[in-house]
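Quick one: co-fold with FE3-S4 cluster.
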Amino acid sequence: MKPTTPPRTYQVKSFGCQMNVYDGERMAELLAEKGIAPAPDGEEADLVVLNTCHIREKAAEKVYSDIGRLAKAGTETGRKPLIAVAGCVAQAEGEEIMARAPDVSMVVGPQAYHRLPGMIDKAVSGERATDTDMPADAKFAALPPRYSGRRKSAPSAFLTIQEGCDKFCTYCVVPYTRGAEISRPYSQLVDEARKLVEAGAKEITLLGQNVSAWSGEDDKGHPIGMAGLIRALAKLPDLARIRYTTSHPADMDDALIETHGEVEKLMPYLHLPVQSGNDRVLKAMNRSHTAESYLRLLERFRTARPDLALSGDFIVGFPGETEAEFEDTLKIVDEVRYAQAYSFKYSPRPGTPAATMEGQVAKEIMDDRLQRLQARLNRDQLAFNKASVGKTCEVLVERKGKHPGQWLGKSPWLQSVWFKGEAAIGDLVEVELVEAGPNSLQGEI
Ligand code: SAH
Ligand code: SF4
Ligand code: F3S
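Sure, here it is.
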């Protein structure tokens, strides 16, 4: 590649899960430290970071079309941006990207992005570089502290506390792209949470691929788990709300269940993916729960916190899934009545055991199953929202609406709520919920 002038502006585009978004924010902070400014809206940046996701084929393919578009725009304007591919596709297909996309000058994996600034210097001097080192510990120790006074946090912030996955569900790439489970140390997390709150965060969502597998030691050296961490963070006076995601049913302990009943700042919302309602399929997926054990676990959470809103993830068309097995998934949905859910067609991922299993399900069958499943999930989401009408609750204001005086915020149950009146971003406003739609509610102060 030809040497080029150092970039003055950047854009980070995140395509994946919440942890991918968190990584995107940390990369943006690194670039800001290096004196590179965010590109103004609508302007092409000198440096574009594509922060990619590998979870399903559609997500992964996006990166190549994006690279093509950026390179073409650069040729037309005569100013080609430096392109960095980060995230889980970078980890999984780093070498392929380098070979297939000559316009890319940097490939950096999710556990190596703390070294992005050095890679930019190389790229400016005309050298291409790939860094997909693991594990994650080194990254967190090397990243600069958050929000060193210059920038403000959004009212709702993410905080990665745990990373990686040792569960090896047979369909999933995450154990390969993110590596083994690690827990960030307690003191580092309390410190980062404090910084976020000082920068204006009112709500913190604790993130992990298996967030409830977090473990550590408190200041006195006593071993603690998620429950202990949540209780410690709840003591930060200006932090109003705590959430966490995503959990695996295998890591939910009594202490965490109790915390839902006792810690007021812990919001009444639980995202607990089940994937399928059929035990044969669950076993083939290498999920360690059965439909029955999952339902019993939810019962314990609901006993501790009766108004808990439940959310889940589903995969339809896992290899070998029969119509009757799929109907078991519909059954579990009817039983749980989720307030929110994410459902996907199975996507075979290179290198995972399920990709070569017999009985891959035809696309038309998957389409049909997904439609039927989503019809039920939508029904339940609307019913949950309708049942909230008449309640008064606190809404955390996240942004302005289109109309004058209109605001958008989140209820404790993570519903989007629109309302009008005196407010500011970051306020917690008492709102009466007066009207419900499938994706949002109307409220009145
Ligand atoms: N760690 C979390 C989430 C992982 S990825 C968990 O275990 O629940 C988010 C969701 O993507 C998964 O819950 C699953 O529903 C879906 N997913 C993962 N791999 C997939 C694949 N190969 N095809 C379709 N959906 C997939
Ligand atoms: Fe993937 Fe399973 Fe790990 Fe979740 S628990 S990240 S679905 S392997
Ligand atoms: Fe995607 Fe990686 Fe997250 S594959 S879902 S960005 S962990």
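If it helps, The CA atoms of residues 339 and 383 lie 8 Å apart.
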